[in-house]
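Hi R.,

As promised on Friday, here is the backbone we talked about, encoded as structure tokens. Could you run it through your design pipeline when you get a chance and send me back a sequence?
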């Protein structure tokens, strides 16, 4: 077993679009690094202390400039890193080339890769025989568990074919060799918690998404800004004065609703959770069922982590020219398969914009229903990924130090580490805060002081 890709019949320790893009990737990665002071500090410490020395690490993440900075940090900590993309459309090919050429990192990712190539790249990451895995959406860990549970029919064909060539002992070793894993996003954490509940989780997982320095900032401000950025880059539509429908008022949804309102849109929110719906209503948005929103929206964006949120019956009710996009993790939030059955199309009218004709009206779907901020833009700004990836780097170190003590469950990184990331970020931003006086500390710890 070795970390090879076999696309086009050639064997290699990487599979990227074009190594000649490396210089552009290097410059852009350095640009992102300027906005990642917390990760930079961790990298400096990792270089001195080498906490990941001798560890093989397989990461399935969006291959962006920010991820490049994480990969180089993990390598500085001593890890032997293999990286594959966590979405067929999110890879930045110049970044992939830079990591291969300038850092010798094994990268398997090409923007626009088809389904088979996507899974061939997951296979290559699995073949790295990792001690630690890192996921954004649990595709890598999902495949490892299908191997562990011998559910080979649930594996994508490229992975399945490879697993069938392995002996039972080799299959077992691939899974038992993993001492722990980390997960970046809400959807991945939901899947992992379901695995833990069913008692099938094979190793401890650190839910990076559950850190406050992750979801409060990355999901809200990162997704908020970059989703709007992706939509504007894809369409060049004016947001001001338009009616924007936001499906889901979780961390991502509220971030996007806030930015859409800031750009002058009339924002409607759809929800299934009464508490979130109440918050949206009191934040000043109109909350309506999708059935109603469908009739009036100009732009629809799903950010729920759920499936079939916009269905054919909704699309049939939409106005001529309605635009539909998704920024949730998987491309299942809009029922595109259903749409293809009843509509004519798709016809590509711009990069990332596809036209469907439905009952004499035109409907435009962005980025094939995949997360639009990564498909049509560059994903989250580096400054917010600084905190998410500081969490990832510290989570990898935490796994190395604590794997034997951790149960096969989904864990958070300790709250002190989370608070330390916030402290370092504030420091880098030049923001000072107050400290408790002794009297305040005593007051907060007491229960016997009243009026
Ligand atoms: N685009 C990105 O870069 C990016 C970044 C972070 C997270 N994500 C993904 O975005 C999704 C949302 O993440 P989050 O952190 O906001 O999760 P969250 O759990 O905080 O919010 C999801 C919300 O959607 C609501 N919801 C569920 N089903 C719904 C339905 N049918 N109609 C309307 N609302 C519904 C839930 O009640 C919840 O309030 C996840 O898939 C996550 O992995 C994407």
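Update: got your reply. Pasting your designed sequence below so it's all in one thread:
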């Amino acid at each position: 077993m070795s970390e090879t890709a076999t696309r086009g019949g050639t064997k290699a320790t990487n599979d990227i679009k074009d190594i000649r893009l490396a210089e552009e990737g290097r410059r852009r990665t350095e640009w992102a690094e300027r906005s990642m002071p917390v990760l930079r500090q961790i990298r400096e410490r990792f270089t001195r202390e080498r906490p990941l020395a001798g560890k093989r690490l397989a990461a399935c993440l969006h291959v962006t400039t920010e991820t490049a900075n994480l990969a180089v940090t993990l390598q500085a900590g001593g890890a032997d890193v293999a990286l594959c993309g966590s979405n067929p459309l999110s890879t930045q090919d110049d970044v992939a080339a830079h990591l291969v050429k300038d850092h010798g990192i094994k990268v398997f990712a090409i923007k626009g890769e088809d389904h088979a190539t996507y899974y061939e790249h997951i296979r290559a990451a699995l073949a790295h025989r990792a001690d630690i895995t890192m996921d954004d959406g649990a595709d890598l860990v999902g495949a490892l568990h299908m191997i562990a549970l011998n559910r080979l029919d649930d594996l994508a064909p490229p992975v399945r074919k490879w697993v069938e060539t392995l002996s039972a002992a080799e299959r077992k070793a691939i899974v038992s060799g993993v001492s722990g894993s980390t997960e970046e996003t809400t959807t991945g954490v939901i899947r992992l918690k379901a695995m833990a509940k069913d008692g099938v989780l094979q190793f401890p997982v650190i839910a990076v998404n559950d850190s406050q320095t992750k979801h409060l900032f990355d999901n809200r401000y990162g997704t908020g800004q970059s989703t709007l950025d992706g939509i504007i880059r894809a369409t060049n539509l004016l947001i001001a004065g338009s009616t924007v429908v936001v499906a889901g008022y979780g961390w991502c949804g509220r971030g996007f609703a806030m930015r859409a309102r800031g750009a002058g849109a009339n924002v409607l929110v759809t929800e299934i959770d009464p508490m979130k719906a109440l918050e949206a209503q009191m934040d000043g948005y109109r909350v309506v069922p999708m059935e109603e929103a469908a009739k009036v929206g100009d732009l629809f964006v799903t950010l729920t982590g759920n499936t079939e949120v916009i269905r054919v019956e909704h699309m049939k009710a939409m106005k001529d020219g309605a635009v539909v996009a998704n920024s949730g993790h998987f491309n299942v939030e809009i029922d595109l398969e259903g749409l293809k059955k009843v509509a004519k199309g798709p016809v590509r009218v711009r990069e990332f914009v596809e036209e469907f004709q439905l009952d004499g009206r035109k409907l435009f779907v962005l980025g094939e229903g995949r997360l639009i901020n990564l498909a049509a833009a560059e994903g989250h700004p580096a400054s917010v990924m600084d905190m998410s990836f500081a969490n990832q780097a510290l989570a990898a170190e935490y796994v190395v130090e604590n794997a034997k003590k951790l149960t096969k469950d989904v864990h958070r990184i300790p709250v002190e580490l989370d608070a330390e990331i916030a402290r370092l970020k504030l420091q880098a931003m030049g923001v000072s805060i107050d400290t408790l006086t002794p009297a305040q500390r005593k007051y907060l710890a007491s229960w016997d002081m009243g009026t």
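One thing I noticed while checking it: The pocket of nicotinamide-adenine-dinucleotide is lined by residues 185-187, 215, 219, 223, 247-253, 270-273, 276, 303-306, 309, 327-329, 371, 373-374, 379 (CB under 6 Å).

Thanks again,
M.
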